[in-house]
Amino acid sequence: MLSKAFLPFFVAFTIAVVLVPLFIRLYNLFNIVDKRSHRKHHIHDVPTMGGLPLLIAFVSAVLIISGIPLDLDISVILGGLILMSILGLYDDLTEIKPSIKLIGQLGLATFVYAFASIKLMSTYGVGGEILLSPWVALPITVLFMAFAANAFNLIDGLDGLASTIGLVIFVFFGVWFLVYGQPILYIRAFAISGTLVAFLFFNWDPAKIFLGD
């Protein structure tokens, strides 16, 4: 069972641990950095947009292990993830208005809701098993996706914090999906875990790179 978890973790880790230092050099070369100031913890300019090599490593690992997804559901989820990351990269480069960014996040979350199976359709035992109508499930699901994305963005202020919390979450879900025989899901969970472990080598205090948006 552990071998099933190790392969996506190892492939994603290997790709990420090679890509991250390359991107650090690239960002320093083109001055894509978070400038030091009296309001910030770091005393040197630190490259940002560390999420880009992690995205590349994650998607590459998933494609290597699972092949090109033919399932519409998986394709939509991966597509939404990539588009959400592009929105974050654009924000890193231009610092778009928070309202515009939120509209973009809500639009992408609505796209995923409409074409994939990610829908919060009940309370799942919290306060009883209450089924939600599609008109209620839509805003709750979309708002939750945007909330989760921005929550991680907010905790990316201390070196290693967001990455460590993300690692704990995805290892837990990876084990959960593995035990319950969900290969599509545990491959992705362990692949993300592998990228985060690789990233922590460069994000621990003193950080050489930040995740960015």
Helicity level: 55-70%
Query: In total, how many beta strands?
Result: 2
Mean pLDDT across all amino acids: 88
Helix count? 7
Concise overview:
The chain is built from seven helices and two strands, in the order H-E-E-H-H-H-H-H-H. The chain has 213 residues and is mostly helical.
Explain how this protein is built:
- The chain is an all-alpha fold.
- Helices cover 69% and strands 2% of the residues.
- It contains seven helices and two strands, in the order αββαααααα.
- The chain has a two-stranded antiparallel ribbon.
- α3 (72-94) runs antiparallel to α4 (98-115) and α4 crosses α5 (134-154).
- It is globular and about 50 Å long.
- The two termini are 34 Å apart.
- The model has no long low-confidence stretch (mean pLDDT 88).
How is this fold's topology laid out?
Blueprint (H helix, E strand, L loop, with lengths): L1 H28 L3 E2 L11 E2 L3 H16 L5 H23 L3 H18 L18 H21 L6 H19 L3 H21 L10
Antiparallel strand pairs: 1-2
Helix pairs in contact: 1-2, 1-7, 2-3, 2-7, 3-4, 4-5, 6-7
Features of the shown structure:
213 residues; single chain; two-stranded antiparallel ribbon; 7 helices; mainly alpha; 2 strands
